[in-house]
Amino acid sequence: MPGPDEIRALRWVAEGSVQGVGFRWYVLNRARDLGVRGWVRNREDGAVEVVGLATAATLEELDAIVRAGPPFARVTRVTTQEVPHEIVDAKSFVVKH
Description:
Blueprint: E1 7-17, H1 23-34, E2 37-42, E3 48-55, H2 56-68, E4 74-82, E5 93-95
Parallel strand pairs: 2-5
Antiparallel strand pairs: 1-3, 1-4, 2-3
Helix pairs in contact: 1-2
């Protein structure tokens, strides 16, 4: 189990009513507040994908944010997986199109 200060990279895929409800911008602002590097984007299948690089403790906070979503979202399922650090090419947190 990683320590709270260990740097990790995770990918989340949030499903449900998550597009057109401000989900990307909600995650963007909170991830930036937390100092997470990475990105968020809408997927063609209607889901939203989030990739973040930060300490394990910070990613736990981001996990709760992704699972809750903004007020008008209805998150029905979230899958999470560890990914290589190299997948995070952003110097901050951005919206990918």
